[in-house]
Design a protein that fits this description.
Radius of gyration: 23 Å
CATH topology of the largest domain: Rossmann fold
Number of strands: 20
CATH class of the largest domain: Alpha Beta
Number of helices: 16
Structural class: alpha/beta
Largest sheet: 6 strands, mixed
CATH superfamily of the largest domain: P-loop containing nucleotide triphosphate hydrolases
Length: 506
């Protein structure tokens, strides 16, 4: 169904090829996982397979890519798209309508399928992905994970012969991720659908015995048959080492905070949107030195909580104080110096024309740009693997590279509180290590004249319990708008198991 023959691709003005001599046949009905470090060429390969690279991006190609015996470079895109469908990393790039049911039907309507066929296929795919309850929801009201499932549904509904998914579970909770992988594997077996999944969550995917293809620096470095063991893969794929090697901050026990003033003080916080209760009487205190992991199912209220802490959403009821400031929409500008925010969607906070300007944007905008700030920016960009991309436009970066740039930009003005919404999406373990170390540097930064009370705190939404185990001190489990669990990491996983949330246990 897919055949790459000595295919290479170099983007215009890029210092090196994104793909190098890829020779790769993928047969009908194969279930394939593609893995690799951030920036290794995975997304570029997905675009090439779907006919969305050659002739649509400036660059130079060598070799060929065929889908169902048709060369993607010479076949009209509308013909290629009848055979192969792509689910992109950012679900919002898919959306062309305003409501879930319309979005799922959109592609089928464009192909002039019969009304009853559209309804039947829509119902089937919504049941398959457990999103029937979202049918009449506005897309703008969905969580990131819910948007991701709708994007998958909109492509699967069209019943392509080949389905390429670029990190389709980046924003999904562990239970939703496992369900999606299992559903795709089942479709593959039952219908001879060819499935290619680009993923970092191999611990959940490999038990389904996909063929495993690994990329590194644009080359195929491993092509293993069904059931390959992760231990046989390159070192960067095997996951984290011992806790102490991943994050020095990992197993820190929080001190006694009974007399200390909290950095975050939330009381009876309630948020309602379009009549739906998103947060329900949430109360919370966070002290200096704490790293809180916020876990929970998609749509449970995790992102809403972070947005409220910065004053980006107005609660229906309750009070919030952050860094001694009473939070309200009018207080956002005052909070900006004290708080660093990384949004769930990497594209939502890219505002500059170059990677270098983006990294320094927050510090420059807050009039906190110093010579040492630029030195630190250069160091962090190099550590993030972006030292050769400083003059590139941020939107030319991969999703994982954008996430690392988001964090660098959010912390260079030395905030006291970090609010991070899924900062590890699209990251290999080496970059997870870098991000955890960077977060820790902000929290432990020594005091200075401007900020005599320097030690900070962090709240991070994540779906990976291994990261929680290695980088956090406390766990909040948020479900249906309420805090179901609030305990130190040392107690968290036993408690989650007792409550039946075993998918969140490493």
């Amino acid at each position: 169904m897919i055949r790459c023959e000595q295919f290479s691709w170099t983007f215009a003005d890029a210092p090196a090829a994104a793909l190098r001599d890829i020779t790769l046949p993928i047969g009908r009905g194969e279930f394939v996982a593609v893995a690799g470090p951030s920036g290794s060429g995975k997304t570029t390969l997905a675009l090439a397979m779907c006919g969305l690279l050659i002739g649509r991006y400036a660059g130079e190609a060598r070799g060929s890519v065929q889908v169902d015996d048709r060369d993607v470079a010479t076949t009209p895109l509308h013909e290629i798209s009848e055979t192969i469908g792509l689910v992109q990393q950012n679900p919002e790039t898919h959306f062309a309508t305003l409501a879930v049911s319309d979005e799922i039907a959109f592609g089928m309507e464009n192909r002039c399928l019969a009304r009853e066929e559209i309804r039947r296929c829509s119902d089937e795919v919504m049941q398959l992905l457990s999103i029937t309850h979202l049918r009449e929801r506005s897309l703008t009201t969905l969580s990131g994970g819910e948007k991701q499932r709708v994007a998958v549904a909109s492509v699967v509904a069209g019943k392509p012969a080949v389905l390429v998914l670029d990190e389709p579970t980046a924003s999904l909770d562990p239970e939703a991720s496992r369900a999606l992988f299992a559903a795709l594997a089942d479709l593959c077996r039952r219908t001879e659908l060819t499935v290619v999944i680009i993923e970092h969550k191999l611990a959940q995917l490999l038990p389904l015995k996909p063929r495993l293809i690994c990329l590194e620096a644009g080359r195929v470095v491993l092509d293993a048959p069904d059931g390959a063991r992760v231990e046989a893969c390159p070192a960067w794929l095997a996951g984290p080492g011992p806790i102490s090697e991943v994050a020095p901050a990992a197993a820190v026990n929080a001190p006694d905070f009974t007399r200390a003033e909290p950095l975050v003080d939330v009381s009876e916080l309630t948020v309602k949107v379009d009549g739906n209760t998103i947060l329900d009487k949430v109360s919370l205190k966070v002290h200096s030195g704490e790293v809180l992991a916020i876990l929970g199912p998609n749509g449970g209220g995790k992102s809403t909580l972070l947005h409220c802490l910065l004053g980006l959403l107005t609660p229906t009821h309750g009070t919030i104080r952050v860094c001694d400031v009473a939070v309200s929409p009018a207080a956002v500008s005052r909070l900006a110096e004290r708080v660093g925010m990384v949004f769930q969607n990497a594209d939502h906070q890219l505002v500059a024309d170059t990677v270098w300007s983006e990294a320094l944007f927050g510090a420059h905008n807050l009039n906190l740009l110093e010579q040492t700030t630029e030195q630190e920016a250069a160091r962090l960009l190099a550590r993030a693997g972006l030292q050769d991309r400083t003059e590139d436009h941020p939107h030319r970066l991969s999703w994982g590279e954008k996430r690392r740039l988001n964090l660098i930009s959010a912390m260079l003005h030395n905030p006291r509180l970090l609010l991070l919404d899924e900062p590890f999406a699209g990251q290999d373990w080496e970059n997870v290590r870098f991000l955890l170390e960077t977060i820790r540097r902000v929290l432990d930064r020594p005091p200075d004249q401007r900020r005599p009370q320097r030690r900070g705190a962090c709240l991070m939404v994540t779906h990976d319990p291994r990261i929680v185990q290695r980088g956090c001190t406390r766990v909040l489990f948020v479900s249906q708008g309420r805090i179901a669990v609030d305990v130190p990491v040392s107690q968290a996983f036993e408690r989650l198991s007792e409550l039946g949330y075993k998918a969140y246990v490493p």
